[in-house]
Amino acid sequence: MAPKQARLKAQEVTRILQRHGFVLVSQRGSHQKWRHPDTGKQVIVPYHKGKELPLGTLTSIIEGSGVPKGEFQS
Questions:
Q1: 59: left (phi over 0), alpha (psi -120 to 50) or beta
Q2: CA dist 31 to 4, 70, 73, Å?
Q3: Beta strands in 1-74, from DSSP E residues, in sequence order
Q4: pLDDT band at 1 (very low <50, low <70, confident <90, very high)
Q5: Is there a smaller number of Cβ atoms within 10 Å at the N or the C end of the chain?
Q6: What is the pLDDT of residues 13-43, one digit of tens each?
Q7: Contact status, residue 33 vs residue 27, Cβ threshold 8 Å
Q8: 59-71: buried (b, 16+ CB within 10 Å) or exposed (e) per residue?
Q9: Residue range 56-72, pLDDT digits in tens
């Protein structure tokens, strides 16, 4: 059985994205748009400081970014 997905906060997710070359492109309200300059992949991260991201949202970010799922394990 695969290990459960760790619950992460937006700040942790953005740190992982930055490590993998993503750049903050814009922010509108509490949603940040991150884009990778080489691959062109783009993800939206709802940035609610101190709150964990819902698992469905986190899964969408992981799939959309192309970053290996293991990078998002704590």
A1: alpha
A2: 26, 24, 23
A3: 23-28, 31-35, 42-46
A4: low
A5: N
A6: 999 999 999 999 999 999 999 999 999 999 9
A7: yes
A8: eebbeebebeeee
A9: 999 999 999 999 998 98
Q: Which two tokens stand for residue 25?
A: 């492109």
Tokens of 47: 């940035």
CB 8 within 8 A of CB 48: no
Name the 3-class secondary structure at 62: helix
- Six token digits for residue 40: 């062109």
pTM of the model: 0.89
